[in-house]
Design goal:
CATH architecture of the largest domain: 3-Layer(aba) Sandwich
Order of helices and strands: HHHHEHEHEHHEHEH
Strand order of the largest sheet: 2-1-3-4-5
Radius of gyration: 18 Å
CATH superfamily of the largest domain: Cobalamin-binding domain
């Protein structure tokens, strides 16, 4: 078992590689995590995810711009590709999640992280991608017998689409009762989720996974 101090060093190096958009270092420290027997899900969460959270904060403060964010995302994706095959799938009441970035919004880095974390937690994730037509969320949820719809937005102008999806769901009472709606993204909030009738707001990928697990546990009680 790797010592706590050594684990923290790997997480910190991985995090810094993501922040700096350094693919070579990101892969190196992801491979190091595997070699040392560090839990892969923990490495994604405490290394890659923490790094992207810093990148997101820097972008919000205009310290980083799109090129830096893209480099960081590429470094994260490379690290995750190394770690993902080593993630221990959890047993339990995992379900089906339909995920996507709402129509008009092409930002998908946060959505992609949530997808990775949900899959690592044992969920089947149907990724609709970005700039998703609103009706596709509802139609896919119906076709795939989904338990959860997860929507992301990074632009305030696209946020109203989330509320429209909730309204579409409500047109079919049985479907709305069965399908939970989670939203996330920088401009969203818990208060906004309540206002549009969504079931939950995930402040980050870890929170989103915990909410999804909670929904499934409640469903199986």
């Amino acid at each position: 078992m790797e010592s706590s101090k050594n684990k923290e060093e790997v997480f910190e190096r991985l995090k810094q590689a993501i922040i700096e958009g350094d693919e070579v270092e990101a892969v190196k420290w992801a491979e190091e995590a595997v070699k040392r027997g560090i839990d892969a899900y923990e490495a994604i969460s405490k290394g890659c995810l923490e790094g992207m959270n810093v990148v997101g904060d820097k972008y919000a403060r205009r310290e980083y711009f799109i090129p830096e964010v893209v480099l960081a995302a590429q470094a994260m994706n490379m690290a995750v590709e190394v770690l993902k095959p080593h993630v221990k799938m959890e047993k339990g009441p995992s379900g089906v999640v339909v995920i996507g970035t709402v129509q008009g919004d092409v930002h998908d880095i946060g959505k992609n992280i949530v997808k990775i974390m949900l899959e690592a937690a044992g969920f089947k994730v149907i990724d609709l991608g970005r700039d998703v037509p609103l009706k596709d969320f509802v139609e896919t949820a119906k076709q795939q017998n989904a338990d959860i719809i997860a929507m992301s937005a990074l632009m305030t102008t696209t946020m109203p689409g989330m509320g429209k999806v909730v309204k579409m769901l409500e047109e079919d009472e049985n479907l709305r009762r069965r399908v939970k709606v989670m939203i996330g993204g920088a401009p969203t909030s818990e208060e906004y989720a309540r206002r549009i009738g969504a079931d939950a707001w995930g402040k980050d990928a870890v929170a989103a996974v915990e909410l999804a697990k909670k929904f499934m546990q409640e469903k199986h009680v």
